Amino acid sequence: MRTGRRPGNPDTREAILAAARELFADRGFDATSIRSIATAAGVDPALVHHYFGTKDQLFVDSMQVPIDPGDALNRVLATGVDGAGERLVRMILGVWDSAAGGAAAAIIRSAVSNELFARMMREFITHRILRRIAKDLDVPPQEGLLRANLVATQVAGLLMVRYIVKIEPLASASSDTVAALIGPTVQHYLTGELGRVSAELGNGQPRRRGQESRDRELP
Questions:
Q1: Is residue 25 part of a domain?
Q2: CATH code, 192
Q3: Do 81 and 142 lie in a common domain?
Q4: What percent of the chain has pLDDT over 70?
């Protein structure tokens, strides 16, 4: 770990970003402080605030995402969760079909091939996306997080098939068609009935080996 203080020069911002990526990946967002990032980067904490303002903004910048998903989700959920499934899909398609899509695709490829980046991506998705979605759902917190996870599975599959692997006909379908097809599934994950099968995940308890077969034996 570097010690001492770096002056405010062009390398300082990159040093802060590098330290932030490593600490966010290793410790998670909540356990990482501006002071710890400054220490790892060898700068004064005031310089971190100078370059990035808040820890949230530093988190977004360290991921090099083309948009702040928190702001985008605020717009999607501003009118409530009714219809939010299709609005969410349309927002995602709008980003990926724009000039920002190339950068977004690079992030996905990096997460697949680089373990440090994968841990960073996992923390980023949990903190900036899943928690934000769960917060607006009128359900217990753990169920909200489960629902947000289910939304993420649908979105991740859509991005991989349409933009990374580019499987036809979905790759060439219009955004209106894709939103109309995928939106209802996302909406179901947000507000639909999940049934008894969600209980083991919704209560936050890991399933013990052999539990499933014992459950089937119960009347």
A1: yes
A2: 1.10.357.10
A3: yes
A4: 84
Burial annotation 33-52 (CB, 10 A radius, 16+ → b, else e)? ebeebbbbbbbbeebbeebb
Residue 87 and residue 53 share a domain: no
Report how many domains make up the chain.
Answer: 2
Q: What pLDDT score does 214 carry?
A: 39
Task: Assess whether 56 and 76 both reside in one domain.
Answer: no
Same domain, 131 and 85: yes
Per-residue pLDDT tens digits for 13-66:
999 998 998 888 788 888 899 999 999 999 999 999 999 998 888 888 887 776
Clarify whether residues 101 and 196 are in a common domain: yes
Q: How many Cα atoms sit within 13 Å of 79 on the Cβ side?
A: 8
The pLDDT score that the predictor gives to residue 197 is 59
Q: Which domain holds residue 43?
A: 10-62
**Tokens matching residue 136:** 């607006």
The average confidence (pLDDT) of the chain is: 83
Contact status, residue 178 vs residue 89, Cβ threshold 8 Å: yes
DSSP letters spanning 156-188 = HHHHIIIIIS--TTGGGS-HHHHHHHHHHHHHH
Sequence-distant (≥ 6) Cβ neighbours of residue 194 within 8 angstroms: 143, 146, 147, 150, 202
Which tokens hold the place of 215? Answer: 């459950």
